[in-house]
Amino acid sequence: MTQTTNLSSVRRPVSEANGLPNEHYINHDIFEEEKHALLFSNWAGLAVGADVPETGDAVPITFLGMPLLLIRDRSSRIRVFQNTCRHRGMILVETAQKIEGAIRCPYHSWCYATDGRLISTPHVGGPGKNTHKDIDRTTLGLTEIRTHIWRDVVWINVDGKAPPFEQAMKDAIQRWAEFEQPMHHGGADSRFDLTVKCNWKLAVENYCESYHLPWVHPGLNSYSRLEDHYNIESYNHYSGQGTLVYRQLEGENGARFPDFTGLSDKWQTAAEYLAIYPNVLLGVHRDHAFTILLIPDGPESTVEQVHLYYPSTSTDKALRSKNTAQWKDVFEEDIFVVEGMQRGRHGAQFDGGRFSPVMDAPTHCFHDWTAKNIQAHRAASHKSA
């Protein structure tokens, strides 16, 4: 029998609320429920456009057990398909590659165009007969996953029922409207992965608050202090933190990254960090931005995929590498915290914890969104049962 949980105390005001129950971090049935209630039913981050930079580039991705294929088609549009042949369910692409012609199934050689159309069915009507009246190729193209690209993130809505992306993310898009301009992935020296032994939600919770800075990030806090930070809360959408003090990185010769163009004066000294629900963490600065995709791997493990972006393609390589190393150090400082909280969720008497009404509001914002979506999913499931 699927386990259920009482979420009523989670939905209370931050001054009265408890955090999510332990089961939401350690229980496999609850993880499966959240997969549908939080990740498949909303706009989740799967990858970045820089993963498929050229026409024909294809990357197989397993997302929450679902085999997907990320591809840049012949018209340079990024698409996501189920990586599953419509004939007998064979996996189509096993390794990242460039598709020069068609996507060919290795089992019976059914072939698909990069836009998903079924274009060849050899011997389907018998030896030498490549068509059959009962096999309608127009209805047997690859199953396409609803996709949108924003800030180079490939957002997917697996169940196809979420509001249009521009509507669902309207508040965040408007907040960072000044950054709606070209940005360029730094390349191989501007990406790295961290595998952490925690539930993916703990990474969101830790990222969206600044309360922990003095103790977990003493180096960062030495110049961008706790008191320089402010909370960002958009209930039902996102939460995070901002700082009024951002210090640009300098190279040995005093070199700096160029700025994004046309930014208001606020961004000369400020930076912001948003957790876009469910699983994308974004940061913007006057001279660079970053994206962290949280890819759940069961209830107690998460892969954090980190990508850094710049206003120009001609940034200094040594400075890029220095920036990547600096951020990697910062994000690695958080590992013992999220893994410690994960172990703490095995304390049977832990009640989800209490929030500081002043410092923890961004985290409560995420818990409230999580509980609301799970309650809606349970109500819908009960109604259809």
How would you characterize the overall build of this protein?
With 385 residues, the chain is an alpha+beta fold. The chain has 2 domains: 23-38 and 178-373, Naphthalene 1,2-dioxygenase Alpha Subunit, Chain A, domain 1; 45-149, Rieske Iron-sulfur Protein. Helix content is 24%, strand content 24%. It contains 10 helices and 18 strands. It has helices at residues 23-26, 28-40, 165-168, 170-175, 200-207, 213-216, 218-221, 317-333, 335-344, 361-384; strands at residues 44-48, 57-63, 66-72, 78-82, 97-98, 103-104, 111-112, 118-120, 146-150, 153-157, 184-185, 191-196, 229-234, 238-243, 271-276, 280-284, 289-296, 302-310. The strands form 4 sheets. Strands 11, 12, 13, 14, 15, 16, 17 and 18 form an 8-stranded antiparallel sheet that branches. It has a 4-stranded antiparallel sheet with strand order 4-3-2-5, with no helix packed on it. The chain has a 3-stranded antiparallel sheet with strand order 1-10-9, with no helix packed on it. Strand 16 and strand 17 (289-296) form a beta hairpin. The relative contact order is 0.17. The mean pLDDT is 96.
